[in-house]
Write a structure and sequence with these properties.
four-stranded antiparallel beta sheet; Elongation Factor Tu (Ef-tu), domain 3; alpha+beta; three-stranded antiparallel beta sheet
Length: 206
């Protein structure tokens, strides 16, 4: 998510000796934030969401759908396939059909929530399985600013503790580096971290 050069600048590291360590540290920090928020903050990737209809006009998407460049997706960028029950034949639902779907969003807090709105008075049939294929993620340096700052702060926290006694560590070139996992104590130690996590956790759909 964060370029190695940006991370090194934030940490004040000017040598390449620890590049591998710092790359791994950043990846662990991102994974921790994703686990805490239940959201994805990596590079753009293809994704298939397996969703279930609830008998309403709205089929909520877990995350924001995007194009390959990380910009917001259009309805034509999504493919929807449905089954009436496990093992049933698949049927493709085309957005341009009269009974197809529209892509809609609304702003909730710091980020939009997206859903597919069924056209022609049709519903997302209760119990039906809908597979929605699209992309998710962020272009390079396109991640949300508060999440980016949190990852930088988490990396700095662990980096500054690398020589403390009692932490699981390894030595590379005579330099001690902690490999302890991130936990909620790390969030408590960073001002505003818990608020950022809470802001990005999925809330109730409306």
């Amino acid at each position: 998510m964060i370029a190695l050069s940006d991370l090194k600048e934030w940490l004040g590291v000017t040598v390449s000796t620890y590049d591998t360590m710092l790359t791994a540290l950043e990846a662990r920090a991102v994974a921790f934030v994703e686990k805490q928020t239940g959201r994805y903050f990596g590079a753009v990737e293809a994704i298939e969401w397996e969703l279930r209809g609830d008998g309403s006009e709205k089929l909520w998407l877990p995350e924001s759908p995007v194009k390959t460049d990380g910009t917001a997706a259009a309805v034509a960028d999504l493919v929807v396939v449905y089954r009436g029950w496990p093992g049933d034949d698949e049927t493709t639902l085309t957005h341009s059909d009269d009974d197809g779907f529209l892509l809609r969003s609304s702003q909730r807090g710091r980020f939009p929530r997206w859903w597919l709105h069924r056209k022609g008075g049709e519903l997302w049939w209760c119990g039906y399985e809908y597979d929605v294929t699209t992309k998710r993620g962020y272009a390079t340096s396109g991640e949300p600013g508060d999440i980016r700052q949190l990852v930088l702060d988490l990396c700095a926290l662990k980096w500054n503790l690398r020589d403390k006694a009692g932490l699981e560590s390894e030595t590379v070139g005579g330099y001690s580096y902690t490999r302890s996992d991130f936990d909620e104590n790390d969030l408590t130690a960073i001002v505003g971290a818990l608020a950022t996590i809470e802001a990005w956790r999925p809330g109730p759909f409306a």
